[in-house]
Amino acid sequence: MAVKVELFAAFAEYAGTREVVVSFHTGMTNSDLWKEILLNYPKLASIPPLFAVRNEFVRKESLLNDGDTVLVFPPVSGG
Amino acid sequence: VRFIWSDPLSVERALDAIHDENGGGEALFIGKVRRHNQGKVIRHLFYECHTPMAESEIEKILAEMFARWPLRKIHVEHRIGKLEVGDIAVIVAVSAEHRKEAIEACRYGIDEVKHRVPIWKKEVSESGEEWIGTCSPDPEQDG
């Protein structure tokens, strides 16, 4: 019962890791997941996250499934 | 098609890719690393991306451009890794029968690449390091 979280760019640097595993509970949304992560990595709270599952952007209210891998992106800044 | 490159980008490659015998108008946007940003002296930039999503998001942008304008060809390339001042970070090249649609589509393409594609840059300047877009008061000023 776990969700794998992959962090990118500023999130990875501020957390000091690119991967975090969070325990899953039924009804868990991306927002819930992020709150759990912020408990351990409060420095990430300054940046608004974008979530993606299976390489598609998803809303923060989207429900997660056990075993999902969630990509968490900071605001993009390409170009 | 490969949009994300860790090697130097090539204007020649972009122009070759959009060449078309009915392409009477070609528009080319080149984004380069500049020396100064918001009063800081830049040493270099570091770009990171999520390659599968960056590739698919650029693919979507190209489909939108083809749906919206009568274009002949489009070529987009974006570099990642360490870039020095003067290096090319992004190229958007478009050919069409006439200039109007080429220029409009090129403008749309670069704007959407900057707004949607999961690519991030860290600025390394004489005053320190900063991930752009995370604490800048106006992220539109970043490039």
Structure, briefly:
The complex is a heterodimer of chains A (79) and B (143). Chain A is α+β, with helices and mostly antiparallel strands and 79 residues long.
SSE inventory with pairings:
The complex is a heterodimer of chains A (79) and B (143).
Chain A: E1 2-7, H1 9-15, E2 19-23, H2 30-40, E3 50-53, E4 56-58, E5 69-73
Parallel strand pairs in A: 1-5
Antiparallel strand pairs in A: 1-2, 3-4, 3-5
Chain B: E1 4-5, H1 11-18, E2 25-32, E3 36-37, E4 40-49, H2 51-68, E5 71-79, E6 81-84, E7 88-96, H3 99-116, E8 119-125, E9 128-131
Helix pairs in contact in B: 2-3
Descriptive account of the structure:
The complex is a heterodimer of chains A (79) and B (143). Chain A is of the alpha+beta class and 79 residues long. Chain A contains two helices and five strands. Chain A has helices spanning 9-15, 30-40; strands at residues 2-7, 19-23, 50-53, 56-58, 69-73. Chain A has a five-stranded mixed sheet with strand order 2-1-5-3-4. In chain A, a hairpin with a 2-residue loop joins strand 3 and strand 4. Chain B has 143 residues and is an alpha+beta fold. In chain B, strands 3, 4, 6, 8 and 9 form a five-stranded antiparallel sheet that branches. The longest helix of chain B is centred in the middle third of the chain and has 18 residues, at 51-68. The chains are: A alpha+beta (79), B alpha+beta (143). Chain A binds chain B through residues 8-10, 13, 46-47, 50, 52, 55, 71, 73-79, and chain B through 31, 47-50, 52-54, 56, 78, 89-90, 110, 113-122, 131-135, 139, 142-143.
